[in-house]
Design a protein that fits this description.
Number of helices: 13
CATH class of the largest domain: Mainly Alpha
Structural class: alpha/beta
Largest sheet: 6 strands, mixed
Oligomer: single chain
CATH topology of the largest domain: Transferase(Phosphotransferase), domain 1
Number of strands: 14
Low-confidence stretches: 106-114, 262-272
Radius of gyration: 21 Å
């Protein structure tokens, strides 16, 4: 039986502790690292620390755990650290529990709603329907029924492409409504790959970033051509299949997920979610935005991939923007378009066609797919899967 130490705030700890217990793990919690860690360190297989505490406190805790229990696997929720595996606090507790325990979710028959991951206000489940695998995305919130159905239905006008999960069917009952999509192939999210690179203190080559950006731009062009906003152009939404290229998750329905972020200003763990990639108009008006907002988030993601860190320390109001060429060897035309994509005024941002034109004139790494595949391999080694 896996033994897990949770050194987290109560509001963060309880959902994760419940999910770990369902996976068969035993958990012990401590609220004060300095008082409880020495007495408990040797009893655990896994330790999950609060990555947002002071760096010196986190470093001391990691040192104590490794000194007293060299075999312990160390994780941190949030923050940045080269000493432990950093887990994104925005991931659902059940998914985090599976990552910590190494459990694999098996496809299951999907009844009326079935067991599912909460994305709030949506839910997600990998399932079997009519004998075939299907990825289900839906909502039980009555206020979200009509917006959800309208957004999902708008995907019907988007041309089919390997870049986007294909919409299979839409259904509505008395207590829920949902959409079925082709399941995602085995792979990793770009956000997971970015955490690996931070741990290694490395970056993807500029040519590989251009390759990724071209594919993301192509997927956005398909959506925008049908007047559909993606809604959440973030590394978490960029899926990198093991056998394939790039996919964009949450097309259109990302608007519901983003809208929830503005209403609550809290993640499912009770901690403030990431806000530095919100466009100024989103931040001011607390509204999902429009097609130009997709361009802003796309530019934010490109800046991070090229420079190795966010262009803003906390909010979209941290100006002036540090030029990307101060941090990376980037062609002037690409640097300019990335910085203009981050303009405060939506009217000053370039159109997607201009962005794709600039990317089309940049050099692509000759072995971009190989670089991504090698990084995925290192990520799995690091996670022990």
């Amino acid at each position: 039986m896996l033994r897990v130490l949770l050194a987290l705030q109560p509001g963060v700890r309880w959902p994760l502790q419940t999910a770990l217990t369902k996976q068969g793990a035993t958990c012990e919690a401590i609220d004060d690292l300095s008082k409880g860690l020495r007495a408990t360190a040797s009893r655990f297989d896994v330790a999950v620390l609060d990555g947002t505490v002071k760096s010196l406190t986190l470093k001391w805790a990691v040192g104590e755990l490794r000194k007293r229990n060299p075999a312990v696997r160390l994780f941190a929720l949030g923050g940045e650290s080269a000493d432990v595996t950093v887990m994104d606090p925005a991931i659902a507790p059940d998914e985090l529990a599976r990552k910590l325990t190494g459990a694999v979710e098996k496809p299951r028959e999907f009844g009326e709603v079935g067991e599912r991951e909460s994305l709030r206000p949506l839910y997600s489940v990998n399932a079997i329907r009519n004998g075939a695998p299907v990825w289900i995305l839906g909502t039980e919130d009555n206020e979200e029924f009509e917006p959800f159905l309208a957004l999902v239905s708008s995907l019907g006008g988007v041309p089919s492409s390997p870049l986007l999960p294909a919409l299979l069917e839409i259904s509505r009952g008395e207590e829920c409504c949902w959409a079925g999509f082709t399941p995602l192939p085995a792979g990793v999210a770009l956000s997971e790959l970015k955490r690996l690179l931070r741990t290694e203190r490395t970056r993807l080559s500029m040519g590989t970033v251009v390759h990724l950006a071209r594919r993301i731009g192509e997927g956005l062009a398909l959506l925008h051509g049908a007047h559909v906003r993606h809604g959440m152009v973030r590394p978490f939404s960029v899926w990198l299949p093991d056998a394939g290229d790039v996919m964009l998750r949450f097309g259109a329905v990302g608007e519901l997920l983003e809208g929830d972020r503005f209403r609550n200003y809290k993640s499912m763990f009770g901690a403030a979610p990431r806000m530095d990639d919100l466009s100024p108009e989103q931040f001011r008006e607390r509204q999902p935005g429009d097609l130009r907002t997709d361009l802003y988030q796309f530019g934010h993601m490109l800046y991070e991939l090229l420079a190795g860190f966010s262009p803003f320390s906390s909010t979209p109001h941290d100006r002036p923007l540090s030029p990307v060429r101060e941090h990376a060897d980037v062609p002037p035309s690409l640097a300019r378009v990335v910085e203009v994509m981050l303009a405060e005024d939506p009217a000053e941002r370039p159109g997607l066609a201009e962005v794709r034109d600039v990317l089309g004139r940049c050099s692509v790494a000759p072995d971009a797919a190989g670089e991504l595949s090698a990084a995925r391999g290192r990520l799995r080694t690091m996670l022990g899967v």
